[in-house]
Write a structure and sequence with these properties.
- A 5-stranded antiparallel sheet has the order 4-3-2-1-8, with helices on one face.
- With 110 residues, it is α+β, with helices and mostly antiparallel strands.
- The chain has 3 helices and 8 strands, in the order ββββαβααβββ.
- The chain is globular.
């Protein structure tokens, strides 16, 4: 189960729930899938096309604001931790754990 520890906050994300310091946050299944994908690829700029293909299983990206909308909603749910999801101009998005010295722990469920 992927976790982020940052400024004494603990964020835990699974496909079924998103919790911050033990309190479940309102989030959609796709927002959680998107965050899980970002957590699995920290500090790597990910294109919108890649996110659409890997998270939404879209064969062709086309012109869509789906990723942007879900990122906006995810940032809102995460509050100050939303600052870890940065826009990469001309590319897409990145979970930037280096800028804030966040600690990411990705643990696989047994």
């Amino acid at each position: 189960m992927p976790k982020i520890v940052w400024e004494s906050c603990l964020l835990v994300c699974t496909e079924g729930a998103l919790t911050l310091n033990g309190t479940e946050l309102s989030s959609s299944r796709m927002e959680r899938k998107l965050l899980l994908f970002l957590l699995e690829h920290p500090n790597i700029p990910l294109s919108r096309e890649l996110l659409l293909r890997e998270v939404w299983d879209y064969e062709t990206a086309g012109i869509t604001r789906t990723v942007d909308t879900h990122i906006k909603m995810l940032r809102a749910h995460l509050g100050k931790m939303g600052a870890l999801i940065v826009s990469v101009r001309g590319v897409g998005y990145c979970l930037d754990t280096k800028q804030e010295e966040a600690e990411i722990c990705v643990c696989k469920a047994s």
